[in-house]
Amino acid sequence: MTPILRNRHEKVQEATINLIGRIADRGAEFVPAKEWMRICFELLDLLKAHKKAIRRAAVNSFGYIAKAIGPQDVLSVLLTNLKVQERQSRVCSTVAIAIVSETCGPFTCIPAILNEYRTPELNVRNGCLKALAFVFEYVGEMSKDYIHSVVGLLEDALTDRDHVHRQTACAIVKHLAIGVAGLGYEEALTHLLNLVWPNIFETSPHVIGGVMDAIEAMRLGVGAGPILSYVLQGLFHPARRVREVYWRMYNTLILGASDAMVPFYPNLGSAADLATGQDYTRHELMMWV
């Protein structure tokens, strides 16, 4: 069946991949591991197919094969693949790494990714960051066990000179914040927020998009109150460029969590109180509290 994978007809490809995935799921032990590795290479090429159904089928089958033969061999191949020049091939590898971590547990992949990140090569580092972003997107709530182990890597990536590094790191922070929301990891998230925050004045549309996404995810992870206290500092800055960014963040806060922000608004008093010097107002919220 493996030669049929090279068939260019989309329906044939999809059906073959699904069948191979089913075999990997039900009877992987009847096929030698070397053969499964060969099929892994074939499937890597199919991760860049035009049709989404083919990509999805390839992803599922890849997961089954990784489960069948263990993550080590597959991972080493994929991490080596991050060194190639062709971008699409690298992106497919990062997706595949995330699939392996989802099926075999993130503890099999995250140490290997952290180790590979030490390679002083731009493409490899970018690939590692992208792989981590996909991993945390896929595993969701499981990322609570791994957040402290990747904080060091994120510190390095968020303070890197290369803006693509910072953009991808913001994507990781976003998925982390959404994954661990409400599980008591506010301390680590606040630390990451402090590293993301200096990037709010970026001019590149992709980077600023990533930064705003990360901050919006922090609204879930840390809560709307702390984010509001960050935003209040720049709302009335003398420079228009600064004000615009802060008002944009304030508006997204209003859209996402206007009710949660009520207890955190600063109590400014009324004009009449300021004139007399005495505060006679009884704020409804204060009476309620």
From TrEMBL:
It holds the Pfam family PPP2R1A-like_HEAT. Belongs to the SF3B1 family. InterPro entries: ARM-like, ARM-type_fold, PP2A/SF3B1-like_HEAT, SF3b_su1-like. The keyword Cell membrane does not apply. One of its GO terms (biological process) is spliceosomal complex assembly. This is Phosphatase PP2A regulatory subunit A/Splicing factor 3B subunit 1-like HEAT repeat domain-containing protein. Its main location: nucleus. Residues 67-144 form the Phosphatase PP2A regulatory subunit A/Splicing factor 3B subunit 1-like HEAT repeat domain. GO terms for cellular component: spliceosomal complex. Keywords: mRNA processing, mRNA splicing, Nucleus, Repeat, Spliceosome.
